[in-house]
Design a protein that fits this description.
About 40% of the residues lie in helices and about 15% in strands. It contains 12 helices and 12 strands. The model has no long low-confidence stretch (mean pLDDT about 95). Belongs to the class-I pyridoxal-phosphate-dependent aminotransferase family.
Length: about 400
């Protein structure tokens, strides 16, 4: 038996992939499974983006690129951020990576070590805690509460900061809750961080283009006084239905760009060339496919919440962003993991237990409405029959 480093025992997982494997195994046995578990748009990548990737291959873009991304893509990212958020970004601060998780791990490698503390949202994307603990740092949960629409409280976050805090992670719009933190809370957090100059902030904004009911996104890049310690994570996976292309980026503080680029060289050399050209086409091309996808998500969001609130023992607030509903199932008398397993086995509906996203997720399930409206309503009807 090989002797492994003890840090391997601290590495967690993303339960959505485990549930997906079980759902696929059931389907292979002939079961009619409806998957509301995986967080992946059910739309194809827009054709003009696909064609740009194909053209790049045909044009001979087969070799290595700069480790931080081709200049044209980094310039396109900077232009897109100015267009969407009104912020000015130096393309030299952009580091392109193969998906959002890479930036998370780079941040943990930079700031995490035994004796350090890193604050993360709970319930939140499970890789936050996994990567923190893998680094050896102490993971400090920031509760996200239903009564706040699952947005974070700036006062509560600031109260968790100690001299050992190296990094805080925020995510809005949020996975798994769909919660959106109001701009006023972002302003309060940014102001409060002025009193904690030893703390860096990682803002996961991968769902920033996925907002409803006229909400506006407040990026961490909006605060000049945090420019030397704010990392902004975004990418193409959700907005452009490009999960399998593996393309993301981060805007790093000037003093950390070289360190992030060096990590990229050590980790993956560079992102594959053709995908980067597809990324340019996504940002600079027509956005009508994105707008159509968001209209469909909004329609499903409303139908999902209405149907969930009709179930016995279930309540669900309307999510403000992303494509997740996070219903409260405490009235059913079942714990989250047991209900997740029973719904898959008995009702053939794949959902994710709230506890997969942290201890504060007990009493909740995550449902992704990245599925057809017909399938969503049939799945919720099955849940209702099971609960009844």
């Amino acid at each position: 038996m090989p002797t492994l480093a003890t840090r391997m025992d601290r590495l967690g997982t993303e339960t959505a992939f485990d549930v997906l494997a079980k759902a696929n195994a059931l389907a292979a046995q002939g079961a009619d499974v409806i998957n509301l578990g995986i967080g992946q748009p059910d739309f194809p990548t827009p054709p003009h983006i696909v064609e740009a990737g194909i053209k790049a291959l045909r044009d001979g873009h087969h070799g290595y690129t700069p480790a931080n991304g081709i200049p044209a893509l980094r310039e396109a990212v900077a232009a897109d951020l100015h267009r969407r958020h009104g912020v000015s970004v130096d393309p030299g601060s952009v580091v392109v990576v193969p998906g959002g998780k890479v930036t998370m791990f780079f941040a943990m490698l930079m700031f995490g070590e035994p004796g350090a503390e890193i604050i993360y949202p709970d319930p939140g994307f499970p890789i936050y805690r996994s990567a923190i603990e893998f680094s050896g740092a102490t993971a400090v949960p920031l509760p996200l509460r239903e009564e706040n629409g699952f947005g974070f409280s700036a006062d509560e976050l600031l109260s968790l900061i100690t001299p050992r805090t190296r990094l805080v992670i925020v995510n809005s719009p949020a996975n798994p809750t769909g919660g959106v933190t109001p701009a006023a809370e972002m302003d309060k957090l940014a102001a409060g961080l002025a009193d904690h100059p030893h703390v860096t902030i990682l803002s996961d904004e991968i769902y920033s283009a996925m907002l409803y009911d006229g909400r506006e996104h407040r990026t961490i890049l909006s605060y000049p006084h945090l420019a030397d310690r704010a990392i902004m994570l975004d990418g193409w996976s959700k907005t452009y239905a490009m999960t399998g292309w593996r393309l993301g980026y981060a805007v790093w503080p000037k003093d950390l760009v070289k360190k992030a680029t060096r990590l990229a060289i050590n980790d993956h050399s560079c992102v594959n060339a053709a995908t980067q050209y597809a990324g340019i086409a996504a940002l600079e091309g027509p956005q009508d496919a994105v707008e159509a996808m968001m209209r469909a998500f909004d329609d499903r969001r409303k139908a999902t919440v209405e149907a969930l609130n009709a179930l016995p023992g279930v309540t669900c607030i309307k999510p403000g962003g992303a494509f997740y509903a996070f219903p409260n199932i405490s009235g059913t008398g079942r714990d989250a993991r047991a209900l997740q397993d029973a719904l898959l086995k008995e009702a053939h509906v794949a959902t994710i237990a709230g506890t997969s996203f942290g201890g504060y997720g007990e009493g909740y399930l995550r449902l992704s409405y990245a599925n057809s409206k017909e399938n969503i309503l049939e799945a919720i009807d099955r849940i209702g029959r099971y609960l009844g």
